[in-house]
Amino acid sequence: MLNKPSALRPTGRATPPARQRHGGQLRDGLEFLRGFLRHPARVGSVVPSSRWLEQRLVREARVAEAHTVVELGPGTGGTTAAFLRAMRPEAQLLAIELDAIFDQHLRSTVQDPRFTLELGSAEQLQDLLAASGLPAPDAIVSGIPFSTMAPEAADRIAAAIAEVLRPGGRFVAYQVRAQVAAFVSPRLGQPQKRWEVVNVPPVRVFTWVKPLR
Ligand SMILES: C[S@@+](CC[C@H](N)C(=O)[O-])C[C@H]1O[C@@H](n2cnc3c(N)ncnc32)[C@H](O)[C@@H]1O
Fold first, then answer.
1. Which residue among 39, 56, 72, 94 is best mutated to probe the pocket of ligand 1, counting the most ligand atoms within 8 A of its Cβ?
2. What number of other Cβ atoms are within 10 A of residue 83's Cβ?
3. 122-146: b (≥16 Cβ within 10 Å) or e
4. pLDDT for 36-63, tens place per residue?
5. What is the pTM of this model?
6. Residue 7 pLDDT more than 80?
7. What local confidence, expressed as pLDDT, does residue 14 receive?
8. Ligand 1 midpoint to CA 213 (Å)
9. Structural domains of the chain sorted by starting position, each given as residue range(s) with its CATH number in brackets
10. 75: Cβ below 6 Å to ligand 1?
């Protein structure tokens, strides 16, 4: 079967030849490492998420069925590109990234009409979502480290997630530590918990489904 020309493919990144692709991954990896060295607690790992973790997030969040997806902490965009590859042609992805250099990197590497990027904190989720004009998200996926941020900030972010998610929608958090549950479970109930061990470091993947009422 012939591949569609890359410009027409609804993906976060066109699929370039292998040498170019590996060059892109290397560049993303170096950019990510530099981000970790700038803000270790905020970035939380030295390398971007593995392909296995990306695919687990796509499945847990049911990205392929979603109309609106929000990503908190896209980093250098590996997870973002995986979501865009899985998303429907008419779906929308809003990403919120705190790091200005990651934000610039994403703006120059992710070309997709379904993608909106905001430089800011997940604490501004309600305002940024309202400003985007998007409806209540079907899925919110977060890699921001709840364990290293101030508890007040973690609580505000958890409250915003529970507020904006559509009833029946999914919140998926991938984390080294389990603190996220202390902030989210009082609002969204008990999560499903899994491990993704094919990742550096292995991470817990929590999935909450917002009750219908
Ligand atoms: C573990 S990295 C995940 C990066 C990428 N999604 C991946 O999986 O490779 C966490 C990301 O969250 C961002 N971040 C941390 N705190 C944030 C906040 N309060 N709001 C938005 N982004 C934040 C960091 O700058 C970093 O890009």
1. 72
2. 28
3. bbbbeebbeeeebeebbbbbbbbbb
4. 999 998 888 889 999 999 999 999 999 9
5. 0.91
6. no
7. 43
8. 30
9. 20-209 (3.40.50.150)
10. yes
